[in-house]
Structures are given as structure tokens and as C-alpha cells.
Specification:
Elements: H1 35-91, H2 94-103, E1 112-115, E2 122-126, E3 152-153
Antiparallel strand pairs: 1-2, 2-3
């Protein structure tokens, strides 16, 4: 297969004449898409995007304010809880409980009993309760308790004999 030569411009004739060229004419314009609708579409998309970003930024700012307010409230509640815990600890202190008991007219217990393991008898040691003076409103409660007088031993015959105290057996093995 051989390729046929392409037709090219005609060579001038040997006579020096020239062949007339095709006459020039106007070419119809190429149909272009209108620019106005495309520009309006791009401008609309940009405006919609900017409005969406503005709305998102506003929502995030509101959430930040809400978070700050909740954190502040949490700190206030935490401070109040600590104050209440300190007040409760102060109310549970032995010195304050003793002063409240004294104000109510209570006296410290003085009866003690001991079990003798040798014979199983209970020995009761008694000491008389001292009358407690109620402190005046301006007088603070004493910080140091007075030393009690030594107790007097009561003979075991003064009380009924109690059955001997036997130690309880310790469990062996695991608690399962």
C-alpha cells in the first residue's frame, strides 16, 4: 500500500500565471454561551457559602458562651460542695460533739467491764460521774479534758457470773 500524495497548493504554471484563489468571505461567528448566567451562578454560590460560614461561626460562638457558663457554674457548685464537706467535718469533730452533748446535759460514761479469761468472770470497774458545769455563752469549751480519778475495782461477787467468753474460730481458706 502506498499513500497517495496529498493535494497541496498548486504550483504556479510555467507560463507565470497564477491560479486564482478562492474568494474571501465572512465566517459566521461561533456561538458562545452567555456569560451573565454563569457569573450569577458563581456569585450565588459564593454568597451562599459565605452565609453558611457566618451561620456556622455564630453557632460555634453560642456554644462557646454556653460552655463557659457551664464551667463557671461547675466551679461554683464545686466550691459549695467543698464548703459543705468542711462544715460536715467540723460538725463531726469529737470536740464539737462533746460540747453539744455537754450542752444537752449528758455526762461521759464511766462504767467499764472486763472479762477475765482465766475463770470467765466479768469484773466491773466503776467510777462516779462528775457533775458537769454548763459553760456560759461567752466561755469557750475547754480544749483539754480533765484527768479522771482512778476507778475503784468492784469485786466479781457483786455481779452475776457470766458464761466464759470463748474465742470465735477464725475462718480458713479464701472467702469465696
Amino acid at each position: 500500500m502506498s499513500a497517495a500524495p496529498l493535494p497541496g497548493p498548486a504550483a504556479p504554471a510555467a507560463t507565470g500565471r497564477h491560479q486564482p484563489e478562492a474568494p474571501l468571505r465572512l465566517v459566521p461567528p461561533v456561538a458562545r454561551a452567555a456569560r451573565a448566567p454563569f457569573v450569577l451562578l458563581v456569585a450565588g454560590l459564593l454568597a451562599t457559602g459565605l452565609l453558611a460560614l457566618l451561620l456556622l461561626n455564630t453557632v460555634l460562638a453560642q456554644d462557646a458562651f454556653r460552655l463557659h457558663d457551664l464551667q463557671r457554674r461547675g466551679l461554683v457548685v464545686s466550691d459549695r460542695q467543698q464548703q459543705l464537706e468542711q462544715l460536715l467535718a467540723a460538725q463531726r469533730s469529737p470536740a464539737l460533739l462533746a460540747s453539744h452533748a455537754t450542752a444537752l446535759g449528758m455526762v461521759p460514761g464511766s462504767a467499764r467491764s472486763f472479762a477475765r479469761l482465766a475463770d470467765g468472770r466479768v469484773v466491773v470497774v466503776l467510777s462516779p460521774a462528775k457533775p458537769v458545769r454548763r459553760p456560759a455563752a461567752a466561755t469557750p469549751a475547754p480544749a483539754v479534758k480533765p484527768v479522771p480519778t482512778p476507778p475503784k475495782a468492784v469485786p466479781a461477787t457483786a455481779r452475776k457470773p457470766v458464761a466464759p467468753v470463748r474465742p470465735t474460730p477464725k475462718p480458713s481458706g479464701s472467702p469465696r
